[in-house]
Amino acid sequence: MSDFGLTTPAEIREILDRMVSAHTLVTLSGPGGVSCTTMLWSVDAERHTICFSAEPDDSRLEGLLESGEVVAVGYVDSIKVQFDVEGLILVHGDRTKALNAAIPSVIYRFQRRSCYRVKPLAHSVPSATLHHPSMPDMQLTLRILDISLEGLALFLPEDIPAIQAGTEIGQCFIDLDSTTRLETRLVIHHVSIMHPDTRGARLGCQLVRLGGMDERVLHRYIEDIQKRRLALAARVS
Questions:
Q1: pTM above 0.85, yes or no
Q2: Which of 88, 100, 141, 212 is the most exposed place for a label (fewest CB within 10 A)?
Q3: pLDDT in tens, 37-56
Q4: Which residue, 125, 110, 114, is CA-closest to 227?
Q5: Greatest CA separation found in the chain?
Q6: Phi-psi region for residue 48, left (φ > 0), alpha (ψ -120 to 50) or beta?
Q7: Edge-to-edge, what's the strand order for the sheet holding 70-76?
Q8: Collapsing DSSP states into helix, strand and coil, what is residue 205?
């Protein structure tokens, strides 16, 4: 993984503007695991401030504001973007709330060298187990359509209640095979209806806070699939 720190005002403004225009989901995290998912609403160069959306009844905001150390993480064109959030304050409007902070002095971009998205092999059926965000008592086991180090796509059958883009799944177990289970959080970025014959939707998800050991396991899994596909292609040719 290679990382690049952007420090010039023009570079920083460009990244922030792209996050605003793309409605990029951003995870704000503090010490002790407190976090929430938001969006960057605006950038005010004259006041040297940025503004994040805030849900009025989100109980996690108080924990973030009290933590004193907040980090923002989002993805722009599949590249992880991270920066420290300084001077975070909650702003009250007539009917809304927002989070204001200073424009960061440094933004880091992390480009994975092995950000390959692979489809499972025909004999393998990896799955993700999670609770439906709108119906916590409903446990789902969804088929994984493809997976990378940064995200995965899940198949949601049409007989299961829809899950909206922007939804955060607090706990998800990924079963790569009968003996390998990873634990992560998910953010649903995209929901698209597949071909009518498939009778379901594709959920494009971001992996959030995949542990270091689990990330290495996933890396080996992806590399193994690539090697097997190359070997199969060599035999066919």
A1: no
A2: 212
A3: 889 999 999 999 999 988 77
A4: 114
A5: 67
A6: left
A7: 2-6, 107-111, 79-85, 70-76, 25-29, 35-44, 49-54, 97-102, 89-92
A8: strand
